[in-house]
């Protein structure tokens, strides 16, 4: 496959929801900087090797300015990468560092550890309700989706009963081909209106939550502007539930797809931590990846890229790179170290990764304790993926116990 004679339609497809697209291995070997065409018809470059993805994500020349006039549009009808939301939070420089410093204080491993008991209590209650509902259950709807929503709503001081609205707004922001431009704009407008009112209420009556704390620091030197607060609230609500909710369903499906994996965890629950990391690495249905825009000339994998190029980094392909991970196409629950790129790399690596890790560990620990006989209610190849969004996921995760 030579670089010049083929343009691949992106996102690349695989036959089964838990399996990687066949092209990944070939691209890594023969065409590490491939030409791809987004659903809009715009062209970009796809990066699939581990070292190249890590380099691009860590190189400040590759920016998140996807609203630039000549940046490739991923979705014709708006979406998180090309929306006004993407410019609410500073993209680079001192402003970005200040934002990460202020918000990052809330997402330390220590703070997340303190939240663990309440997360376990939520997981227990949700499993109770699923069991009461009878078999088979949908693990995604019963546990995967509600748990991260309750947790992020608690962190932001937002009423969890509004979660259905958040879900719709999040989906619209993560749009690839599912929603029209009008639907997307209406959802964005409603989300901004809701979050603006929520921030105003926190100003008037601060609580113990993240937004209240950020508001207290605003006005002081180095605080956040109203727009930054708004972008932070919306961004965390979208990122804080959509990706983890999907990952819970995918992780459990991967572990149940081969019964020996689940049995190994039952025999040795101390493997939960490495099993979570391996699930993050092994996830072949992680979504489209991370796009970057190059305002000036740069290079990837030894190839010179002209200014104006949009690059899509496939962390999921990078995580299957045999040159970094021995037996990359095998799920090894004891793999350590495991330097996967599921949370990105560099200055924009995922701020909430300690939260996501804690939630995944809690869910797995509680499920192993409560439902040791858990199994998929359909063959793994019959699981259906969520389509039309920039995040990967399964429509449902039917389970028995």
From TrEMBL:
<dbReference type="GO" id="GO:0016705">
    <property type="term" value="F:oxidoreductase activity, acting on paired donors, with incorporation or reduction of molecular oxygen"/>
</dbReference>
<keyword id="KW-0408">Iron</keyword>
<comment type="similarity">
    <text>Belongs to the cytochrome P450 family.</text>
</comment>
<dbReference type="GO" id="GO:0005506">
    <property type="term" value="F:iron ion binding"/>
</dbReference>
<protein>
    <submittedName>
        <fullName>Cytochrome P450</fullName>
    </submittedName>
</protein>
<dbReference type="GO" id="GO:0020037">
    <property type="term" value="F:heme binding"/>
</dbReference>
<keyword id="KW-0560">Oxidoreductase</keyword>
<dbReference type="Pfam" id="PF00067">
    <property type="entry name" value="p450"/>
</dbReference>
<dbReference type="InterPro" id="IPR002397">
    <property type="entry name" value="Cyt_P450_B"/>
</dbReference>
<keyword id="KW-0503">Monooxygenase</keyword>
<dbReference type="InterPro" id="IPR036396">
    <property type="entry name" value="Cyt_P450_sf"/>
</dbReference>
<dbReference type="InterPro" id="IPR001128">
    <property type="entry name" value="Cyt_P450"/>
</dbReference>
<dbReference type="GO" id="GO:0004497">
    <property type="term" value="F:monooxygenase activity"/>
</dbReference>
<keyword id="KW-0479">Metal-binding</keyword>
<dbReference type="InterPro" id="IPR017972">
    <property type="entry name" value="Cyt_P450_CS"/>
</dbReference>
<keyword id="KW-0349">Heme</keyword>
């Amino acid at each position: 496959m030579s670089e010049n004679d083929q343009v691949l339609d992106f996102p690349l497809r695989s036959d089964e929801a838990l399996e990687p697209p066949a092209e990944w291995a070939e691209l890594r070997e023969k065409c590490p900087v491939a030409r791809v065409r987004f659903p809009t018809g715009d062209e970009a470059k796809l990066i699939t090797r581990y070292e190249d993805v890590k380099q691009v994500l860590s190189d400040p020349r590759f920016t998140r300015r996807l609203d630039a006039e000549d940046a490739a549009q991923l979705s014709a009808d708006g979406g998180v990468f090309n929306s006004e939301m993407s410019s609410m939070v500073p993209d680079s420089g001192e402003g970005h560092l200040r934002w990460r410093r202020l918000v990052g204080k809330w997402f330390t491993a220590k703070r997340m550890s303190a939240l663990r008991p309440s997360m376990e209590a939520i997981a227990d209650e949700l499993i109770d309700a699923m069991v009461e509902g009878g078999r088979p259950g949908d693990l995604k709807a019963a546990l995967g989706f509600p748990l991260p929503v309750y947790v992020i709503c608690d962190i932001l001081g937002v009423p969890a009963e509004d979660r259905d609205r958040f879900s719709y707004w999040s989906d619209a922001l993560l749009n690839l081909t599912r929603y029209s431009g009008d639907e997307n704009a209406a959802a964005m407008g409603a989300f901004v209106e809701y979050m603006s009112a929520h921030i105003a209420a926190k100003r008037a009556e601060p609580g113990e939550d993240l937004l209240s704390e950020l508001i207290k620091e605003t006005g002081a030197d180095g605080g956040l502007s109203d727009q930054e607060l708004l972008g932070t609230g919306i961004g965390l609500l979208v990122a804080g539930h959509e990706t983890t909710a999907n990952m819970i369903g995918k992780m459990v499906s991967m572990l149940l797809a081969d019964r020996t994996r689940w049995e190994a965890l039952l025999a040795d629950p101390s493997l939960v931590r490495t099993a979570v990391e391996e699930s993050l690495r092994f996830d072949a249905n992680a979504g489209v990846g991370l796009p970057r825009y190059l305002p000036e000339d740069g290079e990837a994998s030894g190839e010179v890229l002209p200014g104006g190029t949009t690059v899509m980094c496939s962390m999921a392909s990078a995580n299957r790179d045999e040159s970094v991970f021995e037996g990359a196409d095998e799920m090894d629950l004891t793999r350590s170290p495991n330097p996967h790129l599921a949370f990105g790399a560099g200055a924009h690596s995922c701020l909430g990764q300690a939260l996501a890790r804690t939630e995944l560990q809690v869910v797995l620990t509680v499920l192993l304790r409560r439902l040791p006989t858990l199994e998929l209610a359909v063959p793994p190849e019959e699981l259906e993926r969520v389509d039309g969004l920039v995040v990967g996921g399964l429509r449902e995760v039917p389970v028995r116990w």
